[in-house]
Amino acid sequence: xxxxxxxxxxxxxxxxxxxxxxxxxxxxxxxxxxxxxxxxxxxxxxxxxxxxxxxxxxxxxxxxxxxxxxxxxxxxxxxxxxxxxxxxxxxxxxxxxxxxxxxxxxxxxxxxxxxxxxxxxxxxxxxxxxxxxxxxxxxxxxxxxxxxxxxxxxxxxxxxxxxxxxxxxxxxxxxxxxxxx
Length: 181
Fold this sequence. Notes:
Elements: E1 2-3, H1 10-28, H2 33-51, H3 65-75, H4 84-101, H5 105-108, H6 115-141, H7 153-174, E2 179-180
Antiparallel strand pairs: 1-2
Helix pairs in contact: 1-2, 1-7, 2-3, 3-4, 4-6, 6-7
């Protein structure tokens, strides 16, 4: 068996890294990051779509900014109230927002590639589930202090969880097997 070179795949790399980079940049912007994140994550997804062969019009994805912004502002986590429940609610809100944005996928894909819609849904569902499981493991089993104000471990914990969740879910987006005989 040979391992596929999934990590050399530009689409996979963008799926895994760009949303995490968007989160880190918005986190570093402080309170402005709450407003900045929906814009940055939409730009990150646009760049993912530019790499996918099923996508014909990636620029139309920017019509999802108002939906992403509304969901993030309504149900997303706020820096002033970092509690376990709030963070989990924010993550769930983010992925529910991505599933709502799925309604816009038909605007950007090639008509002969409808399977991309299923790939996008599965990728987001898997990423959200893995994120919640890993966060629960880190906070409840390992005892990472998530509610300490000014805890810089959160700057490491959230991106690490997101990288792992995106790494797993990226296999669904790229439709690639880990092993090939």
